[in-house]
């Protein structure tokens, strides 16, 4: 730890180190240019772990700052730029080099920065492996929580969706969530598969039906994002269940299609309206602005997303 602190300090101040002693018992360094009296001495305590600073000569004399420092190796670069790389794994080394120079006023070779990036990205692989190892424990935790939720009761509304996994192993995660009596979201089931299509959704939803042991005579409703494979699978596996479409997805797709129209407020208003007359009035105002927008929404089947049409 003490060595890391000294390393960061000398890189920040822009001077080179000369290591007089660097082992498990003592750490003695000084300024590489012997005309400067700066120096640092720390030694290990009897516990074999803790270092104590014995002496520091803080005064610099005849020192010239440098923006190249051999202390700024790939290991150090990986440490200081780790968060930036993890936030954007596809970031190019040139941008990392600029960030390093701007924040720490130090210049490193492109190869050094590349090795640092590889070092950080390898930790992602390890994290993913460890995460997959914990899946069974997580599944058991979900089962326990679901058993507790049964005691409280839950709403007969299930949200189903799938997302691409961008980690080391890829694949698709399918999931089902619900609301308990306190309107708290909790996961019912999830799985990881290779593709997202009708077959995988049918398999997942059949297992969900078996796990819930749902009485077909009891009303239940599913909400989804209109993905074709999921829509078809719901028809096969839960034919009597109500089907609703997620308004957020509809609005997002609408805005992507009609970028020049600013109707987000009206779209939420028309979806939330519980009155048929109010729904019709808002839809007419949308048609006055754009016939194409009106037709788009009507084609999306209002009975699936407009509140006033819901039967349960």
Describe the protein in words.
Helix content is 48%, strand content 20%. It has 312 residues and is of the alpha+beta class. It has a five-stranded mixed beta sheet with strand order 7-6-5-8-9. It has a four-stranded antiparallel beta sheet with strand order 1-2-3-4, with helices on one face. Strand 3 (39-44) and strand 4 (51-57) form a beta hairpin. The radius of gyration is 30 Å and the shape is elongated. The model has no long low-confidence stretch (mean pLDDT 83). Residues 158-253 form the MULE transposase domain. It comes from Dipteronia dyeriana. One of its GO terms (biological process) is DNA transposition. One of its GO terms (molecular function) is DNA binding. Keywords: DNA recombination, DNA-binding, Transposition.
Features:
single chain; 312 residues; alpha+beta; 5-stranded mixed beta sheet; 4-stranded antiparallel beta sheet; 13 helices; 9 strands; elongated
Strand content: 15-25%
Helix count, DSSP H or I runs of 4 or more residues: 13
Order of helices and strands: HEEEEHHHHHEEEHEHEHHHHH
The N- and C-terminal alpha carbons lie at a distance of 62 Å
Mean pLDDT equals 83
GO molecular function, one term: DNA binding
Keywords: DNA recombination, DNA-binding, Transposition
Pfam families: MULE
Domain MULE transposase: 158-253
Summarize the SSE layout with pairings.
Blueprint: H1 2-13, E1 17-22, E2 26-31, E3 39-44, E4 51-57, H2 74-80, H3 82-87, H4 93-104, H5 110-133, H6 135-152, E5 154-164, E6 172-180, E7 185-193, H7 198-212, E8 221-224, H8 228-237, E9 242-245, H9 247-257, H10 264-272, H11 276-289, H12 291-299, H13 302-305
Parallel strand pairs: 5-8, 8-9
Antiparallel strand pairs: 1-2, 2-3, 3-4, 5-6, 6-7
Helix pairs in contact: 2-5, 4-5, 7-8, 10-11, 11-12
């Amino acid at each position: 730890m003490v060595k890391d602190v000294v390393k960061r300090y000398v890189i920040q101040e822009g001077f080179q180190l000369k290591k007089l002693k660097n082992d498990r018992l003592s750490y003695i360094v000084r300024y590489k240019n012997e005309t400067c009296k700066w120096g640092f001495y720390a030694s290990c305590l009897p516990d074999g772990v803790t270092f104590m600073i014995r002496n520091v000569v803080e005064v610099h004399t005849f020192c010239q700052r440098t923006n190249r420092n051999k202390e700024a190796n790939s290991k150090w670069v990986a440490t200081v730029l780790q968060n930036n790389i993890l936030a954007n794994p596809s970031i190019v080394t040139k941008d990392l080099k600029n960030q390093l120079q701007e924040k720490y006023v130090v210049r490193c070779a492109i190869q050094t920065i590349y090795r640092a990036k590889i070092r950080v990205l390898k930790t992602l692989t390890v994290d993913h492996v460890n995460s997959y190892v914990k899946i069974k424990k997580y599944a058991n935790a979900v089962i326990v929580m679901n058993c507790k939720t049964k005691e409280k009761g839950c709403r007969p509304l299930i949200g189903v969706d799938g997302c691409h996994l961008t980690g080391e192993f890829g694949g698709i995660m399918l999931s089902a969530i619900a609301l308990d009596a306190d309107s708290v979201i909790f996961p019912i089931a999830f799985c990881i598969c290779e593709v997202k299509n009708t077959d995988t959704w049918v398999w997942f939803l059949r297992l969900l039906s078996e796990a819930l042991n749902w009485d077909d005579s009891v009303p239940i409703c599913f909400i989804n994002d209109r993905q074709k494979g999921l829509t078809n699978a719901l028809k096969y596996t839960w034919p009597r269940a109500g089907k609703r479409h997620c308004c957020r997805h509809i609005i997002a797709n609408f805005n992507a299609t009609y970028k020049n129209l600013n109707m987000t407020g009206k779209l939420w208003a028309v979806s939330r309206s519980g009155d048929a007359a109010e729904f019709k009035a808002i839809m007419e105002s949308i048609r006055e602005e754009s016939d194409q927008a009106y037709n788009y929404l009507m084609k999306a089947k209002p009975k699936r997303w407009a509140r006033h049409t819901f039967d349960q």
